[in-house]
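I am going through a labmate's work and have reached the protein record below. What it holds is a sequence and that sequence's fold in token form. Please read both lines and tell me whether the tokens look consistent with the sequence. Do not assume that whoever made the record got everything right. Thanks in advance; the entry in question is below.
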Amino acid sequence: MPEKVEKYLPVCVSLGPGDPELVTLKALRTLQKVEIIYCPATQSDGKTLSRAKDILDEIGIDTQKIRIFLVPMSKDRTLAEKVYSDIASEIAECYQTGRSVAFVAEGDSGFYSSVHYISDKLEEMDIAVQHIAGVPAFIACGALAGIHVVKQDERLSVFPSGTSAEEIMMEVEAGKSVVLMKLSQQKDTIKKAVEILSEAQFHYFENVGIAQKEFYTNNRNEIIQRLFPYFSLLIVKKD
């Protein structure tokens, strides 16, 4: 009779926005314990870039067990989905052969994270995934600025992209706090909102949690002059 293989559920580990000190103890212990860690990266000008890998390095994770996979950056998600599907298949094989495995995500994996493709594929294979929470970027931004993102009975709206200056204005005038993400995809909309919303506070952030790159301003003129890189975010509150 063949020996039964002990199986370990794959773990999706959230790493927080970039500051290694914001990685939770539970995440750290899991990453230290598992045999294999899948880590996303991108390529730019021939260089492999991975904020997630940088975090893993800073918290002392053994590089021998880290497997980097490249994610194509394009609005057409077909190629990226193919990569995620392939990684899910590799993770499934690890699971079936009794190897402990994790895959990582910046911020919190349940909040606008592309690694949901991997979780979805694994669940389609009837493989459950454990999730470890992380600090979302907008929460870290609020701490950096020293503001309450929401308080008491205030409501919060989050827009990943595809909104309009008028929609932002309606949300703010209704007393909601608004978090705007993926600013690089909606530069004109953001600049228009900054110009027309006179009775609002604008809190702009870049690279929160990254030493020497972190930037914050609540000055409207400064915000309009920024280039809105990939890791930028805006919190808007009624004045």
Remarks:
- Residues 11-132 form a domain with the Cobalt-precorrin-4 Transmethylase; domain 1 fold (CATH 3.40.1010.10).
